[in-house]
């Protein structure tokens, strides 16, 4: 569903040179957005030794219906988009960034897609940043078996009265991540706007810097 280069990596990239990056950030945009939105948002991050890779959904949407509707209403697009994430993770691994050196970051529909991916096909990423999103579907997901995300730092951010993503789903998703072993930093601020706050950007930067330091040079 997404445009990609012959090497399988997203066309839109930014950050430090790939050869100098300790981590890759897979940046997944929201509905009616594109990679440029996350690139502009990343300007609000502090310096970190990472390279960003941002795929673009066909028609700027990863699935057609609201994320709390029955899963069938978003098929086959949802499964295709989850497979797209898998494809990019495989391409990043081929470029020297295995999952333990990748931080998925998403906003809104992109955060929902990533949350669903991480909870249904868990792997030990370097970290996870979910800004205003939760897993897809009307009902809570069963937690992954065991603790496949043990030690994975996860920043989860939203606002209490977001018009598109109810805070209860954000909290449910954070709890599922915790039960899977992730080290979750959850914060839901008062508000009604569908935005990535300055505090969320600062928290993402702290995660990237700390995780890059632990990972060390490639």
From TrEMBL:
One of its GO terms (molecular function) is hydrolase activity. The keyword Hydrolase applies. Keywords: Hydrolase. InterPro entries: AB_hydrolase_fold (IPR029058), LYPA1-2/EST-like (IPR050565), PLipase/COase/thioEstase (IPR003140). The keyword rRNA-binding does not apply. Residues 61-203 form the Phospholipase/carboxylesterase/thioesterase domain. Signal peptide: none annotated. Pfam families: Abhydrolase_2 (PF02230). Belongs to the AB hydrolase superfamily. AB hydrolase 2 family. PANTHER family: LYSOPHOSPHOLIPASE-LIKE PROTEIN 1 (PTHR10655:SF17), LYSOPHOSPHOLIPASE-RELATED (PTHR10655). This is Phospholipase/carboxylesterase.
